[in-house]
Design a protein that fits this description.
With about 375 residues, the protein is of the alpha/beta class. It has two domains: about 1-10 and about 270-385, Aspartate Aminotransferase, domain 1 (Alpha-Beta Complex); about 15-270, Type I PLP-dependent aspartate aminotransferase-like (Major domain) (Aspartate Aminotransferase, domain 2), CATH 3.40.640.10. It contains twelve helices and 13 strands. The strands form three sheets. It has a seven-stranded mixed β-sheet, with helices on both faces. α3 packs parallel to α4 and α10 (about 320-330) packs across α12.
Length: about 375
Amino acid sequence: MIYLDNAATSFPKPPEVIDAVAGYMRDVGASPGRSAHQLAVQAARILLDAREAVAQVLGASDARHVVFTANATEALNVALSGVLRQGDHVVLTSMEHNAIMRPLRYLRETRDVTMTVVPGDTAGRVDPGAVRAAVTPRTRLVIANYASNVVGTLQRVAEIREAVGRDVLLLTDAAQAAGAVPLDVTRDGIDLLAFTGHKALLGPPGTGGLYIRPGVEGKLAPLIRGGTGSESESDEMPSFLPDRFESGTRNGPGLAGLGAAARFLLKRGVANIRAHEVELTARLLEGLRHVSGVTCYGPADPDLRLATVPITIAGLPPAEAAHELDRRFGICVRSGLHCAPQAHRTIGTFPSGALRLALGWASTADDVDAAISAVAELAGKAAAG
């Protein structure tokens, strides 16, 4: 099997991650932050270690400002519902995922939130100046994903921050980017950053979080309210982080795995993983460029994108191509609209979508060559009718 679906969920996971999940289930098992016995204290220590390791990956100076959620979608909902008020205006890009689009639709209907969508070019890149031009006196939030889940295009987030100034909040969806490229939320001036654990961070599903810049937490209302194990004498939510946004028992086994994954990334070096994936992406793009009937989407320069390459094959629907790659060649990919129809409209692949090949930390040159060969065979067969 050749796994090229890392933009959906990374696989395989580092052995350390598997060991950490199993170890928590086998040896700890208690609820963190609830009891005072030794197993509960150990559980709390594991979550603290995970929070500190993830904060280091993100470039966050204060680990308390990394709030754990079940996934990036929940984190984005926390940000959007927590920040936006009645009649607010939002600026976002045409490359956003439904984890942005669907909550915003709900907020349009319930809070009269208005929005301006800034289109990307056919490679998915958005002009920071166009984002600035869309800002109005009513704009409360600017949203730009760090990297597209469809084409892997890296947005110029720091330039967007500089263009719009500091009077509006900047939210970035880093579900694809966290763990795949070196991040520094302080350097880039990011106010809110959502991440998931199960993609390039190499952690388990059911983990994720929201980075909240110091000073922004007061502008953000919790999405979920309930028990935190702190200030239990009050029926008000705690004012301090991370408790204010972490009601209910956290996913201890998953976060143990996420902590192990973050430490693995720090040890190996995100920049080193990035260099490996850039090299493989260049190899994939160059190989596919010579296959008749195949169209690649996104930036031609691998330095401007993640290791995610969507393609179409003339005469072969993406869903059928994905099925054939799996059935005949043992290559796992994803087809369709990838929960981002506006992004596909932007690059010109709506409504049928595309076939997405997404490399990862464990991918090899042999994997890339096998994929190129398989796609070439499918394209040749489609051309022959």
